Structure formats: C-alpha cells, structure tokens
Amino acid sequence: MSRHGVRFRETRQVPVPSLLGLTGSEARSRASKEGLRLIEFGEGARVVSQDPMAEIWAPPGAAVTVWLDGPDVPPIPAPRSH
Distance (Å, rounded) from C-alpha 10 to C-alpha 74? Predict the structure, then answer.
C-alpha cells in the first residue's frame, strides 16, 4: 500500500527471450520455460522474426508471435512502439 492509502497490485513480469534462429520446437520450449505462449506462422525450420522483441517485459501467459522461414510466411508487420 502506498503512503496515500492506495493499493497497488503487484504484477510479475518476465523477460521475453530471443527466439531468433531457433527451430519451432526449440522456440516453444523456450517460451514455455519463461511462462509465455507461442503463436507460430509459417512452415519453415527457423524463427526469422518475433513480436514482442527480446528483452521486453511481459506478464506470464502473454503471447509471443514468431514467423518461421519458408515460402508460406506472411508479411511481417512493422514493430509496435511501446
């Protein structure tokens, strides 16, 4: 509680790991280890982009979207400003 009597809810945050260059399986394992969900696009072998970027803090259970290399990868959106 603050000195003004306002209660603040503590929210635990985890750093988003870099998943670039990992296989889909490796990326799923790494995200899960950090308590994050993984959303995958593409059928390729390796992660070529991710959102949010590495080292951003996110709440446990947040989604990290990755794009795998290959011919079926949709256009990668511009990074969001935080």
Answer: 37
Cβ–Cβ < 8 Å for 66, 49: yes
Structure tokens of 35?
């308590």
Residue 59 in any domain: the answer is yes
pLDDT in tens, the chain (82 residues): 556 666 656 678 999 999 999 999 999 999 999 999 999 999 899 999 999 999 999 999 999 999 999 765 555 666 666 5
Q: pTM above the 0.85 mark? A: no
Tell me the CATH number at 51.
Answer: 3.30.10.20
- What is the extent of the structural domain holding 24? 14-68
Our count of domains for the chain comes to 1
Asked whether residue 81 is domain-assigned, the answer is no
CB atoms within 10 A of CB 46: 17
